Amino acid sequence: MADLKDGKTTGHQWDEDEGFPLQEYNNPLPRWWLYTFYATIIWAVIYWILYPAWPMVDGFTKGMWNWSMYKELQQDLDDVAAKQKPFNDRLGKMSLKEIASDNALLQFAVSGGKAMFGDYCAPCHGGGGVGVKAGGFPTLADDDWLFGGDLETIQETISNGRNGQMPAHLKSAGGAFSDAQVDDLTQYVLSLSGKSKDAVAVARGDTLFHGEAACNSCHGDKGDGSLKGTLAGGPLPPVGAPNLTDAIWLYGGDLQTVRESIAKGRVGQMPAWGTGTTNRKLTPLQIKQLTLYVHSLGGGK
Amino acid sequence: MIKHETIEKNVSLMTILTLVAIAIGGLVEIVPLFFIKSTIEPVKGMRAYTPLELKGRDIYIREGCYNCHSQMIRPLRDEAARYGHYSLAAESMYDHPFQWGSKRTGPDLARIGGKYSNHWHQAHMEAPRSVVPESVMPGYPWLRKTDLKYDDIEKRMQVLNMVGVPYTAEQIANAKKDLVDQASLASDASGLTKRYGNKVPKDDFDAQPDRVTELDALVAYLQMLGTLVDFSSYQAQTR
Description:
heterodimer, A: mainly alpha, 3 domains, two-stranded antiparallel ribbon, two-stranded antiparallel sheet, 12 helices, B: mainly alpha, Cytochrome Bc1 Complex, Chain D, domain 2, 2 domains, 45% helix, 0% strand
């Protein structure tokens, strides 16, 4: 405090009338602070010279290093592309089956697929493909498939999308059947997985299922779905009609939900990622990686 | 020569000199932006929002979506990998006010358009955790139940026109018709596409064919975000 006492004051005085005037010392700035301040000024000038800084009338000073954020981004992207190139080149040339039997390459593809799945697919199919009942979005981590779970079919599904084709059956929803008939069909469908107790209604529903409503033309004579079911001994069209005899339900297996599915129909949509527009377009290479990832979730065939 | 003491003891003089100092700084930073050509990149595809998208944008602001979602993809590698091309100034040139933001409790939405289906948006707005279990987003179930009010749509477009959004007299005159047409699958959309281009998505965005609700407007807005600029014609300043 010694030098404070010796310093000169600024000349201001307050509260003179109190007989104890307040004064303000005019001490020099601390040296360390002053030199740091000068250093920042010098740094600013260096920065102006090296980096883009000053706006001009039509443009801005680019700086000696010609640095730009866009260039840096491009450099980053190029670096990653160069690192991935040896893998991507092989991924592009090899078939899905060949990749699946090459451990190192499979690991690369599955890692890439996992990252993409998190952003593009998980909102509907859930993290890790656990499925989301609220929207009828199928589980991808089990071995119950609508269109098929082999590599080629999964690739086809991701590339070109899929459209659900379950029509509405209730008259008021645009179908051809009465409330009572829809009730009978519901009882029959529930009976396929052993959940109906109304044998009379089941019998009526059975007739409708294989007759007037022609449910068997997609779900098969036994109601076990278009993938493994048969129609009069022959194969079914690949329309993705679910197996009704197992306990796996896309929208729900309680009476009310099954009835709603029959009454109003279900038109679930899997978007086409190979031909999508702007924000929904994946390259064939990305789709390959996603295919291998989905296949690896546990249900791949 | 004015002494420091003179300025310090004269409030009016100090106020005036402070204003002058700040004004110089402001002018140097702001004025060149009006003249520098690269401020807003020349791009193809940008158009003014359709009446339905405009109402959707109003709902986006009303519900405070910007509090958790930004609309600004930065030129960084991880953002490019997740969200796509970085945002251009041109993409928000018809926004008054823009929705850039920097708070990302939820993901950036600058390129959400077309990424997920309408069906997903419906389920997600109704109850976000029913589709994304780890989400902290609140539900907006009333949007689906609330009819969209759009009596003032022409006025809103006129005001935006005053601040530089190029709405034509024809677009303003047909606003109500275009709004209803865009929210329906069955309608004739020739007028809408003539006025706003072929790429305008036309759909029953809320899965309720007989109603135009707030959900219709919001989903239409979200499905358009980041889809307008034709990037195949955009020459980036990267090399």
